[in-house]
Design a protein that fits this description.
Blueprint (H helix, E strand, L loop, with lengths): L1 H10 L3 H18 L11 E6 L5 E7 L5 E4 L2 E4 L22 E4 L5 E5 L16 H5 L7 H16 L7 E7 L17 E5 L4
Antiparallel strand pairs: 1-2, 2-5, 3-4, 3-6, 6-7, 7-8
Length: 196
C-alpha cells in the first residue's frame, strides 16, 4: 500500500484519483487470493496540505479523524460523509468524498493509527486523545507528540496491544511563512509500540 501510495502521488494530480489507485491495489490483492486472506481492507486518511498551510483536503476512509490542536483546544476533523475502508468500495457508491478544512495559523495537525484510540486502561476503557490535547500546549509538533505519548503511556501503564504511529504537522504562524519558507514549527513523526 505504501509503495502504491508513493507511486500514485507522483503521477495522479488529484486526491480522489490517489484513493482510487489505492482501492484498485487492494482489490487486485483480494482477487489474487482466496479464502479469508482475500478479504483485506484498510482504514486510511489520505490528506493534502496546501503549500501555504492554510487548507487541508482529506479523504477519510473509515479511519480515526485527524485532530486539529489550536489555542488549548483539540477537535477532530470529522468527515462530512462517512466512507467505507479501502478494499470495500464495491459495497458503496463510486463517489470519493473529500472534505476541505480552513486551518488557523499556528495550529498543529495530529494524525495517528487506530492503535491510539484502541489502547485501553486497566479497566478496559478506550483511550481518548482529545482531553490531553485540549490543554494549553505550545504550537510545536514535538511538544504535542511528547504530551500525547506521555499521556498514552500513563493511561495504559505502558501496555499497548497494537502498534502506535503518530504524525504531527506544525502550521505556519502567518502568511510570511508560506511556500518556500521554513515553517514556524518542525514536522515530526513518532512511531511507538509493539510490532505485529
Amino acid at each position: 500500500m505504501l509503495g502504491t501510495f508513493h507511486e500514485a502521488t507522483l503521477r495522479i494530480p488529484d486526491l480522489p484519483g490517489v484513493v482510487r489507485c489505492l482501492e484498485e491495489r487492494i482489490q487486485q490483492a483480494n482477487a489474487a487470493e482466496s479464502g479469508m486472506a482475500a478479504e483485506r481492507f484498510a482504514t486510511a486518511v489520505i490528506a493534502e496540505l496546501s503549500a501555504d498551510g492554510a487548507t487541508l483536503h482529506v479523504a477519510n476512509r473509515a479511519h480515526p479523524a485527524t485532530l486539529l490542536v489550536h489555542r488549548g483546544q483539540a477537535r477532530p476533523l470529522e468527515p462530512g460523509t462517512p466512507s467505507l475502508p479501502l478494499g470495500l468500495a464495491d459495497l458503496g457508491g463510486p463517489d470519493i468524498p473529500v472534505d476541505r478544512y480552513a486551518l488557523p495559523a499556528g495550529a498543529v495537525l495530529v494524525l495517528f493509527t487506530d492503535g491510539v484510540v484502541e489502547a485501553r486502561d486497566h479497566r478496559g476503557v478506550f483511550y481518548d486523545p482529545l482531553p490531553r490535547l485540549s490543554r494549553p500546549l505550545p504550537p510545536d509538533p514535538d511538544r504535542v507528540l511528547e504530551a500525547l505519548l506521555t499521556d498514552l503511556n500513563q493511561y495504559t501503564a505502558g501496555q499497548l496491544d497494537d502498534d502506535v504511529a503518530l504524525l504531527a504537522i506544525g502550521l505556519p504562524l502567518d502568511a510570511n511563512d508560506g511556500p518556500g519558507k521554513t515553517p514556524a514549527a518542525p514536522r515530526r513523526k513518532a512511531d511507538h509500540g509493539r510490532r505485529g
